[in-house]
Structure to design on (257 residues):
C-alpha cells in the first residue's frame, strides 16, 4: 500500500519511504498559512505610511503640492518622512514575493508552471523596482532640496522649485504611473488569470475589478487629471490581497479536516 489518499481536489501521491521527508498535509498547511500571512502583512502594511507620512507631509494628497508647500514640511519632519518612506519602500518591494506566493499556492502545482504565472512574477519584479525608484526621490533628493530651501533667497527658490517639480514629476511617473498603475495592474491581472481555476469565482471577479481600478490613473498620460484614483487603485489591491489571504486561511483549515 504505497499510495495515500490526498485531500479533495488533489491527486494521490506515493507515501514517502521510512525516514524520508515528504510534503505531507502538515507541511502543505504551513505553506498555505505562510502565504496567507505574507498577503495579510502586505495588505495591512500600507497603513503605516498612510499614518506617518499623512501627518508629516499630507501624503498622499500632498504629492502634487508645489515646492513652497512641501519642502518646508520635509525639512521640519525629516525623521518621520524617512521612517514612513522606508516602510513604504518595504511594502513596495514585498509586492514581488506576495505575487509569487499567491500564484505558487493558489494556482496549484500545474497552474504555477504556466507562462501566465511566470509572467505575473516577472511583472511584479519590475513593478517593485519601478516603485522603489520612485520612492527613493523622497529619501535622497527631496531632503537635500529642503535643506537648500531653508534660508534661500527668492532667486534660488525659483531654481529649487523647478528642480523639485522635475524630480517629483519624473519620480512619480516611474513609481506611481509605471510601477503601481501599469506594471502593478498587469501583474495582478496575470495573477488573477493564473489562479482562476482554483480560486473562488468571487475572488476572480474581484481581482478583475481591482485591475481596472489600478489602471485608471494611467489616464494622466492622456492629460486627464486622475486626482485620487491612484489611492483608490492601491486600496483596491490591498482589499484583494486581504481577501486572498482569507481564502488561503480557509483552505488551510480545510486541509486540517
Amino acid at each position: 500500500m504505497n499510495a495515500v489518499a490526498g485531500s479533495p481536489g488533489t491527486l494521490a501521491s506515493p507515501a514517502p519511504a521510512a525516514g524520508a521527508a515528504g510534503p505531507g498535509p502538515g507541511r502543505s498547511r504551513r505553506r498555505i498559512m505562510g502565504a496567507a500571512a505574507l498577503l495579510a502583512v502586505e495588505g495591512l502594511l500600507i497603513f503605516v505610511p498612510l499614518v506617518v507620512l499623512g501627518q508629516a507631509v499630507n501624503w498622499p494628497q500632498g504629492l502634487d503640492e508645489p515646492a513652497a508647500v512641501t519642502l518646508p514640511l520635509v525639512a521640519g519632519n525629516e525623521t518621520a518622512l524617512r521612517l514612513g518612506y522606508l516602510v513604504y519602500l518595504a511594502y513596495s518591494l514585498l509586492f514581488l514575493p506576495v505575487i509569487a506566493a499567491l500564484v505558487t499556492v493558489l494556482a496549484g502545482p500545474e497552474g504555477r508552471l504556466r507562462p501566465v504565472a511566470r509572467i505575473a512574477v516577472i511583472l511584479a519584479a519590475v513593478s517593485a523596482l519601478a516603485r522603489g525608484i520612485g520612492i527613493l526621490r523622497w529619501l535622497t533628493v527631496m531632503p537635500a532640496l529642503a535643506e537648500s530651501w531653508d534660508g534661500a533667497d527668492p532667486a534660488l527658490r525659483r531654481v529649487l522649485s523647478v528642480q523639485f517639480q522635475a524630480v517629483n514629476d519624473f519620480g512619480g511617473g516611474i513609481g506611481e504611473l509605471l510601477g503601481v498603475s501599469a506594471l502593478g495592474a498587469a501583474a495582478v491581472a496575470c495573477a488573477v488569470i493564473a489562479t482562476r481555476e482554483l480560486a473562488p469565482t468571487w475572488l476572480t471577479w474581484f481581482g478583475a475589478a481591482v485591475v481596472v481600478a489600478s489602471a485608471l490613473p494611467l489616464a494622466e498620460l492622456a492629460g486627464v487629471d486622475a486626482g485620487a484614483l491612484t489611492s483608490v487603485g492601491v486600496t483596491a489591491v490591498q482589499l484583494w490581497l486581504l481577501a486572498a489571504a482569507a481564502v488561503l486561511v480557509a483552505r488551510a483549515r480545510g486541509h486540517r479536516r
